[in-house]
Amino acid sequence: MSIDNCIAASHTGLKPLYREGSGRIVQFTDVHLALKYKGTPENNYLDKVEPDVKYGLDPGVELLEAALECAKKVIPEPNFFLYNGDSVIHEGKHENEKKEKLHFPRTYKYHNKVIGAVMSRLRRTYPNLDKSRFFALAVGNMETIPDYAMDVTDGQEINPTLSEIKQGFENVLLEGEEQDFVRRGYSRRQIEDGLWMITLNTAVYHPRRSGDSKNGNLEDPLGQFAWLRKTLRSIEQERENSLICGHVPPVLALADGVQQWEKEYIETYKKIITDFAGTIKAQLFGHTHDHEIRDYKVPLYISGPISPLHKVNPSFTVWEYDKKTFEILDSHVYGTLDLKNWGYRFSAVKSYGLTDLRKGSLVKLRNYFVDEGNFNQEQFNHFHLQRYVYRGYNLDNKDNLVAPANVKKCDHVACLAAIRCAFKKWYSDIVELQECHIKERAHFASMGFRIEEDMRIFKETAKEVARREKKLTRKYTSTARILNPSNETGLKEEPTYNPLSTCATVFMMVIVLAVIVLVLDKVFGIKSRWTRLVKGMQTENRRQ
To answer: Where is the chain membrane-spanning (predicted)?
Structure first.
């Protein structure tokens, strides 16, 4: 790796220009470390790492360590370090260049070792940074088995899912935080005077979440929304400020509209954010493997991944913030265009011609994409290309990495509509977002932009509508099956027939009915029809 490129100017001719006296946040996310081994799990696979840096695969430790070395070079003393989770490799089988099978066991023993390996390397990069300024408690969806698993509990009892991965996070937990972690997976910690970091457990909100929910409230999983509102009210009353971070952002994916959170959860969260917008300075997330700025009531920022699995150029972000107001001033992105040489790639402020990234300045950015009078295709190109650090738009491009001069521009209706809709509104429902895409695609087509066949938003909308209908059907089916008890499994709500439980229920109902009849007869002297009928039949028999 050429470490000098971490300071040298990028191909754009830009150099990182940091404001004097500003704060610096180094953010990493979505490492998806492939700790590789051959053979059986009994092998000491952590000592047999085979770093295989390749687009379309999750990385070995070599790529992570190169990125951390670069970060240390450019920001030797950050104000704090933020890691947004997803340490574990994606599911699926991999091969190395020799076509040897590489196995990645789905066991919590392995997951904890991988998470621990990532955490130890992050901590080692900044050994002098106080542990309280090292934020790495965001639980990614790949940390659990299966991915997106998270039991829904009441936030007070031990959560089975969180207790399974606790060991991997021990290196970054402060004294006294362990119980909070295993009970709920969300927390708050003071960064400096007047500023708090709130870490959310976002796994409970994803549509693909699986796990038990018998002891939890699905309207407010883990009691997190109630806790968040209470926490923000306390911070507001003290006239202090906060940043919110987590793994999965409360948005719909930009290009295809996939629900990252369930619709109802996004709506609840938006209400809380709106009520406390004055005390929340920014929302910082990962997960989607791209760089995004969303101009919402409180600015929402998404940082790109270390993993090149989705053919994205690996990168990390340095956030610059005002140490008096705690507002975000700029994002400086460092990345590699060839998986070898790391360098400074772009500044959001310089790219869009802004003064900073404060809420007021983001109005100007929003107008670039929404206001027809300010339409500038070049701004769409900047946003599009910087999402993936200059990766081409075509996901099937086998070159994966394309020279910046040859990257496809955002010059067709699907790309233009996706970006415009992302800035028009904080959507919570893919059906509504699809309507925006249809309208804006027609508009850009009327302006003469080419029509490229991109049906992802429509396919994902159809899938989501079908999922909701299936969920609703299961809910009604479960409610109606009085004599067929079911065990509900989280948001999936899948009724499971249990013969033993059904027989027990029928038997208990017969007993209860008999007791009721007995009470009516003995206490109140009320004879049931069937009792009189039986006695009448007995009298008739005696006469015969």
So the answer is: 499-520
Q: How far apart are alpha carbons 449 and 420 in whole angstroms?
A: 14
Cis peptide before 146 (omega within 30 of 0): yes
Domain residue limits, the chain = 3-346, 499-543
- Domain formed by 3-346, architecture: 4-Layer Sandwich (3.60)
Which DSSP helix (H) or strand (E) runs through 460? helix 456-480
Amino acid sitting at position 231:
T
Q: Which of 156, 38, 133 is nearest to 95 (CA)?
A: 38
| Residue 472: per-residue pLDDT | 80
Nearest to 191 by CA among 236, 147, 134: 134
Q: Are 83 and 27 in contact (CB under 8 A)?
A: yes
- The whole-angstrom separation of Cα 71 and Cα 336 is 12
Cα distance between residue 215 and residue 151, in whole Å: 9
Name, in order, each residue with C-beta under 8 angstroms of 533's C-beta and a sequence gap of 6 or more.
none
Which are the contacts of 519, defined by CB distance < 8 A and separation ≥ 6? none
Candidates 491, 474, 464, 478; CA nearest to 151 is 491
Q: Rounded to an integer, what distance in angstroms lies between the CA atom of residue 266 and that of residue 264?
A: 5
What's the order of all strands across the beta sheet hosting 80-83? 134-135, 80-83, 23-28, 315-321, 328-336, 342-347
Question: What's the pTM?
Answer: 0.83
The mean pLDDT of 450-470, rounded to a whole number, is 92
Signed CA dihedral, 71, 72, 73, 75: sign only: positive
- pLDDT (tens digit, 9 = 90+) per residue, 249-293? 999 999 899 999 999 999 999 999 999 999 999 999 999 999 999
C-alpha separations of 46 from 91, 350, 537 in Å: 18, 42, 82
